[in-house]
């Protein structure tokens, strides 16, 4: 019996079994073809979508991401459009409230909160010490809390501290190690740019809370591999002559005022391992003024680096009492501002490190200091010196 292939299928009611099999194969092939076209179309649309991002095949497991809908403030290079990816964390969809009790203890309360915007988010699968360089300019959202003063660092729900998350990795070898901290970044635009450009990534950079464009400079420094600190202004002994700025921590201020000023400084940037004093000889020598500050740093998982310029400083004693990772600078490298003078101080710092195993030097982002440190670094490795981030050399009560 002949079959009209152009007639509707319903009119060919007496097709042969073989013909039915042939027609079945045709329909299946058509279905597969349409399905493939649909998949290709969806893939092409996704690839051309503004919010599409592709994970590099070389990305380690610790930085792989999972999709979520938690909104986060956009960071440079991520975008704000409907498909843009945002960093999120373990506190996604949670409201965290800290209550200070009369005995000084802190009670943390977690309650659900609605998400303000939708869309995908990047969530860290595993928190590790240090960050992948490709993500180093972005904060770990689980280590931040939103306060009126800004986004402030906190210890994560899993116990991860900002000091650990943002520390620069090092070899782990117990040879001669030196940390060099160059401060004052953000105060001079050209000086900041030169320091980030010319100093090796092993040098720790300290940003002054009173500086300008700090978030942008922080991101650039982190992309280049630097560990960073925040410099907080504090009252010096010669306060009338030497003014650290309008938001300095003062001995005459009460604890509430000083903590508000501290948090204001903390909110200027993110991704720092700790705090370093800017001036502050008088403040650091007053236990009543310093105790609330050290307690707050300990609760937030930050280190404190004392620049070593005040022999009366109580920072070491009080840091131990509140489990604050703490370090003292052994030398100020640019007390005399010339290339040769800085090089001589670097040689002295190296001798201290060979004698004690470690040493910390601090300097400011002057042209002469930056040039001398960069020159010294080129040959330090050949002499068996490892330059590390300052977090690797502080005394950590939780590790020692």
Overview of this structure, please?
The chain has 400 residues and is α/β, with parallel strands linked by helices. Helices cover 31% and strands 20% of the residues. It contains ten helices and 16 strands. The strands form four sheets. Strands 8, 9, 10, 11, 12, 13, 14, 15 and 16 form a nine-stranded parallel sheet that branches. It has a three-stranded mixed sheet with strand order 1-5-2, with no helix packed on it. The chain has a two-stranded antiparallel ribbon with strand order 3-4. Strand 8 (176-185), helix 3 (189-198) and strand 9 form a beta-alpha-beta unit. Helix 5 (255-266) packs across helix 7 (287-300). The longest helix is centred in the first third of the chain and has 32 residues, at 17-48. Residues 1-90 and 123-128 have low confidence and may be disordered.
Question: Which features would summarize this protein structure in a list?
Answer:
single chain; 400 residues; alpha/beta; nine-stranded parallel β-sheet; three-stranded mixed β-sheet; 10 helices; 16 strands; 31% helix; disordered N terminus
Outline:
The chain is 31% helix and 20% strand. It is α/β, with parallel strands linked by helices and 400 residues long.
Major sheet characteristics: 9 strands, parallel
Radius of gyration computed on alpha carbons: 29 Å
**Approximately what portion of the residues adopt beta-strand conformation?**
15-25%
Helix content: 25-40%
